[in-house]
Automatic annotation (TrEMBL):
Principal subcellular localization: membrane
Protein name listed in UniProt: Phosphonate transport system permease protein
Subcellular location: Cell membrane
InterPro entries: MetI-like_sf (IPR035906)
Transmembrane segments: 20-39, 78-99, 197-217, 229-247, 254-271, 320-340, 441-461, 473-490
Species this protein is from: Allohahella marinimesophila
Membrane-topology descriptor: Multi-pass membrane protein
Keywords tagged on the record: Cell membrane, Membrane, Transmembrane, Transmembrane helix, Transport
Length: 509
């Protein structure tokens, strides 16, 4: 179909995609719409817009009055990130060597399915406010993530060197001398990305009492010191935005070696508490009272009310919130990538767009949801906005960068014609692939946002820990992990079934 006035050629449909891709997209859209009707989406505070104006005013007058406190918080935030990510990457690389084993893959899937904040809540019960709590809370789930991604990178290397050289039995030697030199650029790039994620993870650990940025951010926000909040966030954004300049490979060993000295000492570990936690605290209550595993009826009496009152409503709200946030992320992504695409506007507009996306993806969902909850009141709305903004900016940045690599066909229009008939058909499949990649991550974050008071699984986990019912808390954490693993499996099945890749379509027929 042609436009005789402008001499431009358009495909007959705005999306040159397979029917299966369109059908899956419509199903997700429909599920999100039904979830929106069932969800708790409202603003409950008496003066939300006035409070938001005061909050915005804080960003116009950032305060550095407590510079010493801020410097300490930032150093500890960076310190926990470096140590946690370093340990996680080493453990992940070792696990990668045996990733072909089903048991290792299952173990890695399990540990990465549990959010860093849940790991921190577990370690707090026996390590207390010790640096080991924060370091392990980051290192353990990151080890599972690193193992998976390193294995995927390792599988994509050229097998030829291993075929022409004498047989090497050691997996470690093969990976170190045959695979790593080929994959080093990808390994380095991904590890740097995970370090950026580590900064965000480290920051939110402050919300459970560790002395990182989140601890001081929460304190300043509760007191209405929005200028201090603004200063903390701005410097945090600056640290992430300038990583390419200060994170030099030759300085990395120095950073890693120096970081433990900035973690603080914390309270001493009482090792008897560690033993009691694993041998008594997390044991289901009936077993502690003499009931054996051979008495399923009494165990069911313990489990049944937990399932009805906590697991079912927690799962329901977690899934509903996730699906709303997933589609909201998709909508924001399809708008956001235009901000950094060279096909729409000049360099100045792209610079502003890039700044917006950097701020959006650098702000941890947990911190953003916390702030919005204080401004709008407890409901799913703050969580949806926080999840959509963070993940939409991440995917929008990736899709925008891919759009800049596309060569437009002759006769391509401008404005909406360029968007709907040229770019979107070629970018939609990688956009969908990235969205499904983030699905399981959005689910993890949705669960943990319950700690803030939203009735997802995290709410019931936090309540169980507060009531010193660690057996119930562990059961709920296991349910959360199983849900995340199920979503990850479904996501991989959809990507494989639709043959989605993260590379743009070279042409649209």
């Amino acid at each position: 179909m042609s436009d005789p006035e402008r001499g431009q050629v358009k495909p007959p449909l705005p999306l040159g995609l397979g029917s299966a891709t369109v059908r899956v997209s419509l199903i997700f859209l429909g599920v999100a719409f039904v979830s929106l009707l069932l969800g708790d989406i409202e603003i409950t505070t008496s003066d939300p817009w006035g409070e938001m104006l005061r909050f915005a005013g804080g960003f116009l007058t950032p305060s550095l009055d407590s510079i010493d406190t801020l410097a300490t918080a930032l150093l500890r935030t960076v310190g926990f990130a470096f140590v946690g990510v370093a340990l996680g990457s080493i453990a992940g690389y070792l696990l990668m060597l045996f990733f072909d084993k089903a048991l290792v893959r299952a173990f890695c899937a399990f540990i990465r399915a549990i959010h860093e904040l849940f790991w921190a809540l577990i370690f707090l019960q026996f390590f207390g406010l010790h640096p080991l709590t924060g370091v392990l809370a980051i290192a353990i789930p990151y080890a599972g993530v690193f193992a998976k991604v390193y294995a995927e990178i390792n599988d994509e290397t050229d097998p030829l060197p291993g075929l022409v050289l004498p047989p090497i039995r050691s997996r470690f030697i093969q990976a170190l001398f045959l695979k790593l030199p080929q994959a080093f650029a990808h390994v380095k790039s991904y590890t740097a990305y995970r370090l950026e994620c580590g900064f965000r993870s480290s920051a939110i650990l402050g919300f459970v009492g560790l002395p990182t940025l989140g601890f001081y951010l929460e304190s300043a926000f509760v007191q209405g010191h929005y200028s201090e909040v603004a200063a903390m966030l701005m410097i945090f954004y600056l640290i992430i935005a300038t990583m390419r300049w200060w994170l030099r490979p030759r300085l990395l060993p120095l950073y890693v070696l120096a970081s433990p000295f900035f973690l603080g000492e914390g309270l001493p570990i009482v090792w008897s508490n560690v033993g009691r936690f694993f041998t008594e605290d997390i044991v289901p209550a009936p077993l502690k009272n003499g009931v054996s595993w051979s008495s399923p009826s009494e165990l069911w009496e313990w489990f049944s009310p937990i399932a009805q009152e906590q697991i079912v409503p927690g799962l329901w709200n977690t899934v509903i919130l996730t699906q709303i946030a997933l589609v909201a992320t998709a909508i924001l992504t399809l708008i956001a990538f235009v901000l950094v695409s060279k096909h729409f506007g000049g360099a100045k507009r792209r610079s502003v767009g890039h700044l917006f996306l950097v701020v959006g993806r650098s702000t941890p969902e947990y911190i953003l949801a916390y702030m919005l909850l204080q401004l709008w009141g407890p409901s799913m709305l703050p969580a949806v906005v926080a999840l959509a903004l963070h993940n939409g900016c991440i995917i929008g940045h990736l899709i925008g960068r891919q759009s800049n690599e596309l060569v437009l066909r002759p006769g391509t229009g401008t404005g909406t014609d360029l968007y709907f008939f040229e770019l979107l058909p070629r970018l939609y499949r990688p956009f969908l692939a990235f969205l499904f990649y983030r699905w399981e991550i959005i689910m993890r974050e949705t669960a943990i946002l319950g700690v803030l008071g939203i009735y997802t699984l995290g709410f019931y986990i936090d309540s169980a820990i507060e009531n010193i019912r660690f057996d119930v808390a562990l059961l709920l954490i296991l349910v959360t992990a199983m849900l995340n693993i199920a979503i990850d499996m479904l996501s991989r099945k959809l990507r494989a079934g639709l043959r989605l890749t993260t590379m743009p379509t070279p042409d649209v027929p």
